[in-house]
Amino acid sequence: MPNCLTSTVPFGDQNRFPIEMLESNNISYLVNPYNKKLDEDQLIELLSDGVEVLVAGTEPISRRVMEASPKLKHISRVGIGLDSVDLLAARDLGIKVSYTPDAPAPAVAELTIGLMLCLLRGVHLSNSELHKGQWQRHFGRRIAEVTIGIIGLGRIGTRVLRRLSSFGTPRLLVNDVLPNLQLNREFKLEWSSKDVIYREADVISLHLPLTSRTKALIGSKELAMMKSDALLINTSRGGIIQEEALLNSLKSGHLNGAAIDVFEQEPYSGPLTQVDRCLLTAHMGSMSLDCRTRMEIEATEEAVRHIMNKPLLSEVPDEEYQVQLLHLKE
Amino acid sequence: MPNCLTSTVPFGDQNRFPIEMLESNNISYLVNPYNKKLDEDQLIELLSDGVEVLVAGTEPISRRVMEASPKLKHISRVGIGLDSVDLLAARDLGIKVSYTPDAPAPAVAELTIGLMLCLLRGVHLSNSELHKGQWQRHFGRRIAEVTIGIIGLGRIGTRVLRRLSSFGTPRLLVNDVLPNLQLNREFKLEWSSKDVIYREADVISLHLPLTSRTKALIGSKELAMMKSDALLINTSRGGIIQEEALLNSLKSGHLNGAAIDVFEQEPYSGPLTQVDRCLLTAHMGSMSLDCRTRMEIEATEEAVRHIMNKPLLSEVPDEEYQVQLLHLKE
């Protein structure tokens, strides 16, 4: 009977340290045997053997899952997103939830800049053309010469800003539910409504959590507002952009390109794969060795603390519960 | 009878201003009708009509070309590289040579960072996998976590350093024929021999001119010295890396990847196109709209100055002639 299930994939793959932590603390554990993102039924099945702590990925940890798993006492998320966890159900059922909010941010921000430079210079297009034997020199634009719109200036959006700073001084349009005006000391920002960002930015990058308020935020109306040669980047959560609307927009010739790392359904194999100028990556934002390892270690530390009856250090703050409560009421 | 031939491709394509400059100064001109890089015979043919000024790309402007074109008095290179121009022949024949050394640097440096981030995170691999319907999450590394080796710290290499600075503090190994120790005030650098860079760097980026000394600098011996998971980037000039050696190295499983923007023969359609982890772009280093336009305008300005009997502002300095002279003697 395992005390701990690690459902996130990969786990302990490049660095075995988190597995050693469980072993050296004599914690019986089960690593997700499917080796891919679980659905509700698979999760219930794996938890049914009396698992007390779940070291979780982004699989759906719904009220149904929790009610079917009466021994479950702690969900330790490897990462920052809580869209997959029904926090209110967890509270009702006395299940603690912790997460690792800081660990993934540097890796996500760095991938975002990489995708931005790729899109701006047509690297993905030239690479696939050359591998097909075609030589075409693409014109591109430099970061300093464009208007960049960032929606969401939390841990990741702020780090994107910081990395942009060595590329010159683009016009920066930013939006957040609660503007952090301290950032104005460090950057020249134009706090803007989302509509202004859609209309005026050459590059739009999303750094938002997935909630009932951000779900389907970017649909056909918002896409139509964007410049015909705009570039759109999503390294936050699938579902914030309506994929079908994006597909139709790209197919109609609108937008110069998009870079999509996160999808409504993962693994993704949908129709965006048919659009060359849509740069696609497999939810790799946090997948740098150092950040992934840090996430796994921090989440496993919390699991060990729970089992050892020590206080958790990174419980999900009350605001996150309030967000889910608020959206339930809407 | 055109006074001016613009052989570089593209020219006045995204911004017609350089063409307007010629027209508004009543200079008769011919734009390269082949719309691709010329060979010696095509160049001789197009110059034969009495062209006085050549606004040149990277086509071979050899002694034979110059001797066959007695009216030619000024070569105005769009760009910085002079490997395509026989400077000593030009001096012998009384042909002035000017160039635009600063204009391309920001665009080349920025593409280099984009390619580096792509390689470090496997963006090119994930993109082509997803477009084939395959989902695989690649582990990557962040800039701050690796050792970066930069060979050549001139206008471009220095700008690469500057852009890296917002990504944290990687170990920086650098090499240049003449170390600019002023840079130590701004960056934490380890001035290193090339061999140390080959052996110790996780990412190696080349920012060198092509001369008889740098030609085939990176061959099978140098590649073998590199770490088995090293990443190699060349946005400088084809020919500095021996393509066949690189191909054999990659095919044998050595190196985690390479990003190659410049080739021995351009347009390129050689066997590196068969290696997925070789990220290929079509000599696009300088191809940002702003830098390309600046290059074309600056080179055209020099052409106009020559024809108007005004002094040139950006003649190639004597050092460049000395380099070619030195190599001739070796």
Main pleated sheet of chain A? 7 strands, parallel
Rounded to an integer in angstroms, the radius of gyration calculated over CA atoms of chain A is 21 Å
One letter per element, helices H and strands E, the order of chain A comes to: EHEHEHEHEHHEHEEHEHEHEEHH
Number of helices of chain A: 12
Query: Which blocks of ≥5 consecutive residues of chain A have pLDDT under 50?
Result: none
Approximate shape of chain A: globular
Q: Round the mean pLDDT of chain A to the nearest integer and report it.
A: 96
Oligomer: homodimer
What pair of chains forms the biggest interface?
A: A-B, 62 and 62 residues
Helix content of chain A: 25-40%
What distance lies between the first and last C-alpha atoms of chain A, to the nearest angstrom?
41 Å
Indicate the proportion of strand residues of chain A: 5-15%
